[in-house]
Amino acid sequence: xxxxxxxxxxxxxxxxxxxxxxxxxxxxxxxxxxxxxxxxxxxxxxxxxxxxxxxxxxxxxxxxxxxxxxxxxxxxxxxxxxxxxxxxxxxxxxxxxxxxxxxxxxxxxxxxxxxxxxxxxxxxxxxxxxxxxxxxxxxxxxxxxxxxxxxxxxxxxxxxxxxxxxxxxxxxxxxxxxxxxxxxxxxxxxxxxxxxxxxxxxxxxxxxxxxxxxxxxxxxxxxxxxxxxxxxxxxxxxxxxxxxxxxxxxxxxxxxxxxxxxxxxxxxxxxxxxxxxxxxxxxxxxxxxxxxxxxxxxxxxxxxxxxxxxxxxxxxxxxxxxxxxxxxxxxxxxxxxxxxxxxxxxxxxxxxxxxxxxxxxxxxxxxxxxxxxxxxxxxxxxxxxxxxxxxxxxxxxxxx
Length: 400
Description:
EC 2.7.7.65; 2 domains; membrane; Alpha-Beta Plaits; Diguanylate_Cyclase; 63% helix; GGDEF_dom; elongated; transmembrane helix; alpha+beta
């Protein structure tokens, strides 16, 4: 008989894409395990959806004030309409002031503002309504205010959130509901409050599953879009995004940023002599060596054909040379005939080379790679403007 945990795990698996890898499950729990590109695209999506909801709330919130006007007495409806107009103005400011910039903290601020506005409106209106003796019709309309936390809780389902993020937001909404109950303690209808609170807990569980399902599909789609299917490294288009992001960060904090362009030596001879399948096998092995050897902060991308780029943030020229030397000493893989694979490398660094853009930094690494290749291959070129073409690399270990 399967255990309850196995049954729940099986049910959860049906909500997740089959392409989701086992090692990616932790990304459903914690946001700090996400890649830079996934974080950027998720943050952009979250802010865009916040702005969409802010627009809808800005339009619908004052319209509902007509109902207040018809069912509540004069002092009460005026106060409620005032609260609605203030909430409408806050939603309009949220719509106008928050723009997607790829920052996760910016997305957090946008989501916090989106849910804080109706939460404050709920607490204020709930406290205000508790001080009035309502008629049968107005009591029915007032009961609708009690369901606002349920609407907010259900709204979490449209965001691709991790379990931790969803738990924090849901807990904040439940806490706001408890605060509203405390402020109207003397007049609170406890059975109704308990029923609504229990329903909010159930909705929180459903929205958490919906958010995780969205996030899982997003993880798979982003991985498939940004990775080179042959080598597992980043594809060129996504690599250019990473380079620009790292460039912006390096400029903002005035830190080093090194870029190395590697071109495998005599690779076309492999395809001609052993066939393209053998060439693909060499590229796959080379990609595995790079990903296994380099630091977790470095990014590897396939620039095209047999050319690869290594992006090393917070790294000056000397540190980058040490990283590349260690990488070569451990070996880059082997050719089909058993001889070691070698590469010609051009290295450029933002601060030392005084480059003005990420494109200029990349172009400089490309020129130096061609200098290294022209001067005998299996070399690392860090200059060349003075007529030198860098230094020979250490002989890689035999792959026989």
